[in-house]
TrEMBL record:
Homotetramer; dimer of dimers. It comes from Streptomyces lucensis JCM 4490. It is found in: Cytoplasm. HAMAP family: DapA. This is 4-hydroxy-tetrahydrodipicolinate synthase. GO terms for biological process: diaminopimelate biosynthetic process; lysine biosynthetic process via diaminopimelate.
Amino acid sequence: MTSTQHPPRPFGRTLCAMITPFTEEGALDLDGAAGLAARLVAEGCDGLVLSGTTGESPTTTDAEKTELIAAVRGAVGDRAALVAGVGTADTRHTAELALAAEKAGADGVLVVTPYYSRPPQEAVAAHFLEVADASGLPVMVYDIPGRTGTRIEPETMIRLAGHPGIVAVKDCSYDFLGTQKVLERTELAYYAGCDEHVLALYAVGAAGCVTTVGNAVPAHMAAILDAFDAGDTGRARRLQLRATPLIEAMMGAGLPGTVTAKALLGRLGLPAGPVRRPLLPAGRETADGLLGLYEELVSGS
């Protein structure tokens, strides 16, 4: 399969779920964000997701979210698509954030399923449709039931695909069969939101990925997709498997990806800073382990 057989990529192919750098005092670090964004783009990311789960959206203010968009846009220009996380548990607030993201210069919005209230599927659909109508920006639907408590069922996703403003999905559903059903019946651009699924989902027609591990190894994650697009599926497989230890340590070892990503970036001397409470920083042993796995991965690439 070549890249021409993949669906349209409204936000690029290799997107990074970028952390939100803070100063040691806990304030938003706009210079650090600009520097990190420029590095990510230079090393293979053609899209950035700001203020998502990894970007600590629950603990950043509305003003900080818009300031972050503006700072990153200034750093990367038109070299990468910017997708702004605007999802909240409140439909009205989400729509307001979508409008603010549009004014700040985002290219699209990431909208997560409303959490805590656990709306039924009809209400889930109504939420996304209302937000899609609220601004002129295209919507990436964020399906992550492990955090929100509510799955976007395949039939609901197929219904949402009928709205011209709903163009993409960040898939953290862990339902590979359901995802394939939607891929088969719609033109939605699917992006793997779980790093262990990057190659698997791409192989069945996804548009790309939204990677957390890519905060540290953007070139490696891009290389997986490069190899597949070039028809070298063996190399794509090797690169995906080579990343497995770091993926597991960052995403599957009991700590949120935000915590592990910031711990590793801090050890690499890159903009990161502390996490905001209720999250707590990773311990020294964890950070040392992450650095060791990172060094093993980049030395073998």
